[in-house]
Amino acid sequence: MPASLATVLISAAAVWVLTRDGSAAPGGAQLPAVVLTAGAMALSTGLGGQDLDLDRSAAIRWAPRRAAHVLLGGAIVGAVLLTVQAVGRDLTTTAFVARDCAGLAGLAALGAVVAGGRYAWAFPFTWLAFAVLVPPLATSVPMKVATWMLMPTGTPAATWTALCLAVAGTALYALAGPEAVSRCPARSRCPGRTAGRSAGWRSSSVDVPD
């Protein structure tokens, strides 16, 4: 968590340095999208559990905690960028920040479900890289969906794409947990889990005096 927060703050400070002289034109979408994506990538590394058995046996269900983790991470990224704008130069609107933060947080959570917290950053990064490479004159609905994080606020396709990513990613991560896709379907067939249980059973079978 400290390393992720430091990355978010460093990226925000870099934006402040780059825009304090007024060289960046207000309303440009690429720089804010890059900052928000970098923040989502940094916070996505924490979207992973330590042990699935501990998660299942916790006194408080982990689904609300996971959902709160995703939402709080997106809120932190957006708040940092808005704070930089308050003390520096306006780069974009609050609606743009809210939309992209919600979509990127859900996309990072979806990456954690598919590949785990260690590789969840690749999903926001890949989508942003594709969106930047798409020609700006592509105005069809599929292209608006592909470049949703760069579209201006009020674009229905971009808004619905961000909303779907936020809801689907957060819900899947909250209910299924990290690495749900690559997880072994049958717990008894996982050799690593079986070996660990056997070793744990052998280590616990020690005579304890009364």
Distance between the termini: 44 Å
Overall shape: it is globular
State the assembly state of the protein chains.
single chain
Biggest β-sheet strands, sense, barrel: none
Provide the helix percentage. Answer: 55-70%
What's the β-strand tally?
0
Radius of gyration: 21 Å
Whole-number mean pLDDT: 77
Structural class by SSE content: mainly alpha
Name the poorly predicted regions: 186-210
Helix-strand sequence: HHHHHHHHH
What's the helix count? Answer: 9
- State which percent range the strand residues make up: under 5%
What does it look like?
With about 210 residues, the chain is mainly alpha-helical. Helix content is about 65%, strand content about 0%. Helix 4 packs antiparallel against helix 5, helix 4 packs across helix 8 and helix 5 packs parallel to helix 8. The termini are far apart.
Summarize the entry for a quick read.
With 210 residues, the protein is mainly alpha-helical.
Key structural traits:
210 residues, single chain, 0% strand, globular, mainly alpha
Give a topology summary.
Blueprint: H1 2-19, H2 30-44, H3 52-56, H4 62-87, H5 94-115, H6 122-133, H7 141-146, H8 156-176, H9 191-204
Helix pairs in contact: 1-2, 1-4, 2-4, 2-5, 2-6, 4-5, 4-8, 5-8
